[in-house]
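**Backbone description:**
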Amino acid sequence: MATGLAVGDTVYVPCSRVRGLENTGVSLYRSEVVEVSHSRVRVGVQDGSTSDWIGASLVHKSVGILVLRIGDFETEQTLLDPLAKSVTQFCRLLLPDDQVRAVRVRSLDELQQLWQREQAAYSHVIWIGHGSEAGINFGVGGWVDAETLGRTLRVYGAPRKIYISLCCKTGYKSFGSALSRTTMCNRFLGPFHSVEGAVASQFCQTFLASHLLEGRTVGVAFRKARGSVPGSTSFRLWTGGHLTAGAR
């Protein structure tokens, strides 16, 4: 969600919320804000007209998806790589190629170097790796908890991002709540249980399609994605350290 919107700002809005663009097959429309009222905006349309009011919760100042595959050496070819490819290819159906990037890292140092250079380009970050209640496992360096991860990725003035973790059990309070309290996080989504690769991919794709393509808020898109996964796997949504949706 964009904040502090003003007339003249360049923004991205769901095509589904702009008349005439509902069935274009493209998820987001780049335009300029022409009117602001409380928590709503109007944007300019190609034909010279103005859109209907669009809730600020559906407006993005910038959109980019970073898919982070955190390698463990052991399951990369059989699980992590196929899952990362599945999610990345779906993202490329939603957004232009230059707004989607997939990166492989195996250590926290590699991640930190990448983050310092490029974090500003991304509004959504998808974590693919092995997790637990305690943290995420890096092939080089071992397990990293939420506090350490938050300190490592802290960048002064960086925009908050939506984090989608497909790493097992990272939806637990010990990780999900802690990471969602950091200055780098807008919302954190993660599984409450161990999660199969196919289920993780389905959840992520359903959430992104609902959030970006259909123009749903994070909360609504989360509930739709959570309800779509087969079996007993459950996901959680954390905001500012508080559980806002999902299993309790």
Remarks:
- The two ends are 26 Å apart (CA to CA).
- Helices lie at 76-94, 108-118, 146-152, 173-180, 197-213, 218-228.
- Residues 10-58 form one domain.
- The chain has two domains: 10-58, 65-246.
